[in-house]
Amino acid sequence: MQRSFDINVDELINATAKLEKLNRSALPVAVRQTLNDTAFLTKKMLPKEASKKFTTRQKNFFNAFSTVQKAQGWDVNKMEAIVGIDTKKGSRVAAGLEAQETGGVIAGRKLVPHDMGRISGSYGKSLQKKHLFKKIRIHDATSAYKYGSNRGRKSKFAAAAFSASKRGTDYFLLKKGNRGTVFKLESPLSSSLKRKTLKLRFKPVYSYRGTKTHKVDPSPFMKPSATYAIKKIPEIYIKNAEYQFKRALAR
Question: Residues 128, 226: contact at Cβ < 8 Å?
Answer without folding.
Answer: no
